[in-house]
Amino acid sequence: MPVKYSLTIRIITWSLRIICGGLFIFSGFVKAVDPWGTIFKVEDYLAAFGMAIPFALLRLFVFGLCAVEFIVGCFLFMGCFRKSCPVFAALIMVFMLPLTLWVAIENPVAECGCFGDALQISNWLTFWKNILLSVGIAWLVRYNLSGICMISPAFQWLAVVASGLFILIVELIGFIYQPLIDFRGYPIGSHLFADYEDENDEGLDVFDIDTADDKNDEALDPDGKELVVMIPKVSMVSPATTWKLNSLYEWAQDNDVKMIGVVSGSTEEIKEWEDLSMATYPLYLADDTAIKEVVRGNPGIVYLDHGKIEWKATLGSINIDDFLSPEVSGDASTFGRDNAQILLNCVLSYLIVIFFLIFISFTPRMAHLLVKGGLASKRGVKHH
User: Fold this and answer.
1) Which of 1, 112, 232, 362 has the smallest number of CB atoms closer than 10 Å to its CB?
2) At 176, is the secondary structure helix, strand, or coil?
3) What SS3 state is found at 325?
């Protein structure tokens, strides 16, 4: 016989579903939207443990971690897999709770990265957050059956597929192109270089490769259009890539667009790369962490209009093999992507599927209630 739960227990259960599920959804999504940033953070953790793993395995781990967090959060929120989902979430916290305690005590990284770059909180605050989250999940392990499923068990596998596809698409776009939401310090519309409007303006600093002199004023074109090629690891850029960069530079010269390179590495590495690539555009030096803060990819491209960032992209994501082809537009703004529209399309498509599953799950229940109500009315009339 089904257990009857009090109204208080049901209210607490639904509240904790929303809170715990929402935290998992937010944590998984903001890391998935910028998988490169999550990879960099995991690398920091591995370095703290004195470990290193192949990049392919690291990428698989990060993609899986973000997807699992997001999907578990969705199912906690909607009450799917009422028995197994809270148990799975509890297993995650069994791993995360001691890890975040160690991070809080030893402080091997500046901040844990549990919310990516979207929300940076201290290591100790992260630990106490996980304590409260664990308490909420423990309650759900005990009482989650007191709340109904928003999606019927017969359709929950479709919710798994829809949620998995959605978060995978978000991850792939962030990995191959650029994050659909830019939580870093140089979003679209901001100024890239320091000292553009005033001396207190914080921005990217670039330097002369040989003398290390500040070259922000020389690198910036405040009155025109500019392409900035950003390479955090010059040693990892292939010859095919350098040919495409040279093609882009010739296109830029033909279309009155300034183009520079901002690179990171030792003087010897940069000089060797410059010789091998036959780069004739100006090159400047910057810290690799600062370059990664601006744009993802190696190389990444940033397009400026009067000093402001108009779009960002990895070079490989610009669907042009030869910029000197007569079919290529003379307007660099056409090379970018409308990330806001792409994200909106992805979110709306996902929500339509989820709401449809919720609708068809509740339709039989509503029909049953209507029939039951009609029968009760008829009995009442007969009795009268």
Assistant:
1) 1
2) helix
3) coil
Average pLDDT in the 247-259 region? 94
How much helix, strand and coil, in percent to the nearest 5, is found in the chain? Answer: 60, 10, 30
Q: Which of 177, 192, 187 is nearest to 225 (CA)?
A: 192
Whether the Cβ atoms of residue 306 and residue 193 lie closer than 8 Å to each other = no
How far apart (Å, rounded) are the C-alpha atoms in residues 325 and 90? 56
Cα 252 versus chain centre, distance: 31
* Dihedral over alpha carbons 160, 165, 170, 175 (to 10 degrees): 120
SS3 category, 222 = coil
Q: At what angle do helices 339-383 and 55-78 cross, to 10 degrees?
A: 30
> For the chain, what is the radius of gyration of the CA atoms?
26
* Structure token pair of residue 152: 């019927």
Q: Looking at residue 196, what is its pLDDT?
A: 47
Task: Count CB neighbours of 171 within 10 A.
Answer: 24
* 7-32 helix and 123-143 helix, angle to the nearest 10 degrees: 130
Tokens in use for 86? 């809270």
**DSSP classification of residue 193:** B
Mean per-residue pLDDT of the chain: 89
Beta strands, E only, the chain: 225-231, 258-263, 283-285, 300-305, 308-314
d(CA 303, CA 47): 33
List the one residue out of 114, 3, 128 whose CA is nearest residue 69. 114
Cis amide linkage into residue 299, ω under 30° from 0 = yes
User: How crowded is residue 264: how many other Cβ atoms within 10 Å of its Cβ?
Assistant: 20
pTM for the full predicted model: 0.86
Give SS3 for 304.
strand
Structural tokens at position 121: 């909180």
Could you tell me if 240 and 247 are in contact, meaning their C-beta atoms sit under 8 angstroms apart?
no
Residue type, 299: P
The pLDDT tens digits of the residues spanning 284-317 come to 999 998 999 999 988 999 999 998 999 999 998 8
CB distance 190 to 309 below 8 Å: yes
